[in-house]
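Holo prediction — zinc ion.
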Amino acid sequence: MTPQATISLPIRECQRCPWVWVQRGLHKPRRCPDCGSPYWDRPRRVTRGAERKAEEAAGLLTAEKAKAASRREWLRGKVREAKVAD
Ligand SMILES: [Zn+2]
């Protein structure tokens, strides 16, 4: 085995387009090689509405809804049980 001098170059991810690339050279690239955006390392400004949509997409609100729905089901079951006991 011959020892190799390897530098691990960082993997860069464009925040403006789906481009992911391995950095060439030691310095952070100025622009995205694909879309050419100088703001490739900064995410787009997120508005409140978009944030909410993102949360929903991440399933956070969906999980809350599911929890509420299962609780509703549980309560309905309780009511039915009470009626049967009568
Ligand atoms: Zn890009």
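READOUT: The helical segments are 48-57, 60-85.
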